[in-house]
Design brief:
Elements lengths: L24 E7 L2 E15 L2 E10 L4 E2 L2 E5 L5 E6 L2 E5 L2 E5 L6 E2 L4 E9 L11 E2 L2 E2 L37 E2 L7 E4 L5 E4 L2 E2 L2 E5 L4 E7 L9 H4 L4 E10 L2 E8 L7 E8 L8 E9 L11 E4 L5 E5 L6 E6 L14 E4 L9 E9 L2 E8 L11 E7 L20 E4 L6 E10 L4 E8 L5 E10 L5 E3 L1
Parallel strand pairs: 13-18
Antiparallel strand pairs: 1-2, 2-3, 3-10, 4-9, 5-8, 5-11, 6-10, 7-8, 11-12, 14-15, 15-17, 16-19, 17-18, 19-20, 20-21, 21-22, 23-24, 24-25, 25-26, 27-28, 28-29, 29-30, 31-32, 32-33, 33-34
């Protein structure tokens, strides 16, 4: 079974971004099979010139239903661009949001939450009414939304050398934090730049690693060269962002769910801002007869100046190719595809999202095991192995090779933090930083940030 990716990132009406205007509509009605009706909470969780993020939560007040569809009409020309945690289509003004594959049952008093991005011009009023499974709602229900905290928790001081007794929650972040497959760095001017999976590769920025805001997309005019791999879709996956030689390098992948018809591309920019990126071409591609998959790229530049690209997902696992430092493209003199890690078919070969870090005399290979992209049911977890060579072999703490399924767990789901994974790593002024996404109880994908400590044996842990 292959990886199923989110088209974009998650957000729900239970979370309203502090300091941003929000329009909330409560629509009451009868469900076709549930006389008690339903309730819909609709909000504008984030808005910028020409675009906004909408968030919807529907509460079923009647009997359990299997297979739900929520419909509404926009009145001011709003046009949805992409959605998450739902299968959403729009025809004219009419919008139809159906349950995702992993969440078809809506029990009595149960809720379903999803989000979308859309464009707007002039006005952005909320819809006047909603219909669940063809019947306009007329019931009522108390809101169960919990406003976010208004003050951050205390910031830890110092870097510990002993792992905590249990996994910590993600660090405090605010603003536009609904992301999937994030990659992040600290720019030369001290600000933070984040890119993530989504239509035309969305960009976020922050001045303090806490408050994030939308900063447009990498490709405002689209990326037509990716169409042969995406089937014409605009969602591009799993970017990796880095800064070298006075410019930003962005490797990213194009594919469709469950396919090995995939490709990794390179873009460069002098500033990292939306609209400043230059398409530098195809790096590597795979097809349905390939034994591995060209997605999830990660650039690693070694201390000797050599450039390497790790990538891969499922099938025969994580691979490594050499790049030409002068161009950032694939080497023409060393074309070997090296294997770094794989998992046995008994667990579905579920490994992806490589990240290579060098510390001391070791190279560390972080990867994500198990299932992504199933909301709160995701089982993603972050694993690591290490080697004295960038090309491996990588082994876990017990000495098991990662090519034989080995890996030492760094972070896994706990409490209301589900499926943390697709990690990135960078060193900041205060500590090493682990960036990832996780799912909340409402199935939304959110930004996770923790600091990395190193124990006495040189193995990483989060705090």
């Amino acid at each position: 079974m292959t990886r199923r990716r989110m088209v974009a990132v998650g957000v729900t009406a239970a979370v309203l971004v502090a300091g941003l205007p929000a329009a909330i509509v409560t629509v009451t009605a009868t469900h076709a099979r549930a006389a008690a009706g339903c309730r819909v909470d609709y909000s504008v969780a984030n808005q910028w010139p020409g675009g906004f993020t909408g968030a919807v939560t529907v509460t079923n007040l009647g009997d359990q239903i299997t297979g739900w569809v929520l419909e509404w009409d926009f009145s001011a020309g709003q046009q949805t661009t992409h959605a998450w945690a739902t299968n959403l289509t729009q025809t004219g003004a009419h919008v139809r949001a159906a349950n995702p594959d992993w969440s078809s049952v809506l029990p009595s008093n149960g809720t379903a939450s999803f989000g979308f991005n859309a464009s707007w011009s002039g006005q952005n009023p909320p819809p006047a009414s909603f219909a669940l499974n063809g019947t306009v709602c007329t019931g009522t229900a108390p809101s169960t939304s919990t406003p976010p905290a208004t003050t951050p928790p205390p910031t830890p001081t110092g870097t510990p050398t002993t792992p905590p007794a249990s996994y910590p929650n993600p660090g405090w972040v605010t603003g536009d934090i609904f992301v999937h497959d994030p990659t992040m760095l600290r720019a030369p001017d001290g600000t933070y730049l984040l890119v993530h999976t989504g239509d035309n590769l969305p960009i976020k920025t922050s001045t303090d690693r806490i408050a994030f805001r939308n900063a447009g997309v990498v490709w405002p005019n689209g990326a037509p060269w990716t169409a042969p791999y995406t089937g014409g879709g605009r969602s591009l996956w799993a970017p990796h962002l880095s800064y070298h030689n006075g410019q930003y390098y962005l490797y990213y992948s194009a594919s469709t769910f469950g396919s090995r018809r995939s490709a990794i591309f390179l873009a460069t920019s002098p500033s990292g801002r939306s609209g400043t990126w230059t398409h530098q071409g195809l790096i590597i591609e795979t097809n349905e007869s390939s034994t591995y998959n060209a997605i999830d790229p990660h650039l690693f530049v070694d201390v000797d100046g050599s450039w390497w690209l790790a990538f891969g997902s499922f099938w025969t696992g994580i691979k490594l190719i050499r790049l030409d430092p002068a161009t950032g493209r694939r080497s023409t003199t060393d074309t070997a595809v090296r294997s770094l890690a794989t998992r046995p078919s008994s667990v579905g070969g579920a490994i992806e999202a490589p990240t290579i870090v060098r510390r001391g005399g070791f190279y560390y290979l972080f990867a994500s095991f198990d299932r992504c992209c199933q909301g709160a049911q995701s089982t993603y977890r972050i694993m690591v192995g290490r080697s004295t060579s960038v090309t491996g072999p990588y082994v876990d703490r017990n000495g098991t090779p990662m090519t034989a399924g080995g890996g030492t767990q760094v972070l896994a789901g706990h409490g209301s933090i589900h499926g943390p994974g697709h990690q990135d790593f960078f060193t900041d002024s205060d500590a090493d930083v682990l960036v990832y996404h996780y799912y909340a109880n409402d199935n939304s994908a959110r930004l996770g940030i923790n600091l990395i400590g190193w124990d006495s044996a040189g193995w990483p842990f989060v705090f």
